Amino acid sequence: MDRWAGCRGADLVRRQPNCRADISKLPQLIAVCGRCGWRTAEAGYQIVSLLPRDAIPAIDNPRFVEGAEADEQYHEDEVVLGVAINDDVRAYSVPFLSGHEIVNDVVGGEPIAVTW
Hints:
Blueprint: E1 4-7, E2 11-15, H1 26-36, E3 45-49, H2 67-73, E4 80-85, E5 88-93, H3 94-97, E6 102-107, E7 110-115
Antiparallel strand pairs: 1-2, 2-3, 4-5, 6-7
């Protein structure tokens, strides 16, 4: 039986033909592979990246809207990540972050990275 397992979001681990590795050890193989630099071919698996490096662009200068405009633009049950630093408060839409994954911003004079 051919098996697949997820690895780091857009990466997949694919079972290779004639593999003799124990499939029950797959989570440990992925963890060790990532930490120790094993070539996955040695374990009988290959990591396949679906997107090239940096294919999902970061947002470096986010634009924010005032509360009244946000009420019109977003649903009241929309999930956001909230950040408050030194009386500066921001909300980052999780559905929007799903398409970008990281926002580099300055909140309350402090540089931050917001990620999802």
